[in-house]
Amino acid sequence: MERIYLDHAATSPMDERVLEKMVPHFTGSFGNPSSIHSFGRETRKWVDEARSQIADQIGAAEQEIIFTSGGTEADNLAILGSALARRDLGKHIITTKVEHHAVLHTCEKLEQDGFEVTYLDVGSNGRVSANQVKDALRDDTILVTVMYGNNEVGTVQPIAEIGELLNGHQAYFHTDAVQAFGFLPIDVKNSHIDLLSVSGHKLNGPKGTGFLYANKDVKLSPLLFGGEQERKRRAGTENVPGIVGLKEAVVLSGKEREEKTAMYRTFKEIMIDTLTKAGVKAEVNGDREHSLPHILNLYFPHVSVEALLVNLDMAGIAVSSGSACTAGSVLPSHVLTAMFGEDSDRLTSSIRISFGLGNTAEQVKTAAEQTAAIVKRLT
């Protein structure tokens, strides 16, 4: 039985080309980048090169890239770091109800510390509007954090419009781009983004790697204390092999983005068309016009999501019911709850399918046929 992995939004397999670039740095090039001797200078060169090439991908300056252990740390540093650095200017933050928990739980922590957070509602398509942000904006607002593309339903937010709205206001604009990066063209300057979070393992790069873009004028209070790495913003010896791998994954995603996104959009069509031809009722959760190419969230009326996931797994097909960071939780998806209400049947009858490296049209068709057969059996 062929196993088919369709949960790339949870994590993605590492590209062999990425691993190839990393291997020499586990053995031959092992010096500490902070050391002034030749071993340190050799590894420093690779870190500097990675920082420069990653910055080029988003229209940033080299010194505006901070290497982190992943998207969660990048989100935490952006939100906690900027809020603590500027609490004298105000304590109001704006976010949405559909953010990743790395953002929501961080905002909740700030609420416990005396900050005020406005959580914007979304429509049934999972989207907010720039006008909602405008209506919530106050003189004492110091941060607006809105994710670029949703990790559960794939809805893309109006980032450029929000950035333009905030241009000239004291509030920093942060976006969690963990799911969107590599699938959408991103220019932080054109979109007036002050802070942007990215994770390596969503890009076919190594786990435990990521970066935060922070505009040169942004003030951040560090969350880690020790050495003076990352211009005193993130202490700790740099993960050189991981940084090299992250850079390679970022560069490859930029080169291959258009080809990949076109292919994944075709995969969506194959999945939906196959289910339709099989006579299975399935509805798309999210905004089909403003959507990430690799994420497809489907609602199967009156079908238990637990039973569907178990049966798909037994058939060798890996999908999910939402964010991998809430795996094992008995609570319904907070994203679907925000979109449809807590009494909606969609909360217990929806799955997330996400495409990526190694998937083929044949695999997607097979998965769709298996899904159709299982749904019919369960209803």
TrEMBL record:
Domain Aminotransferase class V: 4-365
Taxonomic superkingdom: Bacteria
Catalytic activity entry: (sulfur carrier)-H + L-cysteine = (sulfur carrier)-SH + L-alanine
InterPro entries: Aminotrans_V_dom (IPR000192), Aminotrans_V_PyrdxlP_BS (IPR020578), Cysteine_dSase (IPR016454), PyrdxlP-dep_Trfase (IPR015424), PyrdxlP-dep_Trfase_major (IPR015421), PyrdxlP-dep_Trfase_small (IPR015422)
Transmembrane segments: none
Top class in the EC scheme: transferase
Enzyme Commission numbers on file: 2.8.1.7
Cofactor: pyridoxal 5'-phosphate
SUPFAM superfamilies associated with the record: PLP-dependent transferases
UniProtKB keywords: Iron, Iron-sulfur, Metal-binding, Pyridoxal phosphate, Transferase
Family: Belongs to the class-V pyridoxal-phosphate-dependent aminotransferase family. NifS/IscS subfamily.
NCBIfam families: PRK02948.1 (NF002806)
Name assigned to this protein: cysteine desulfurase
Source organism (scientific name): Bacillus atrophaeus (strain 1942)
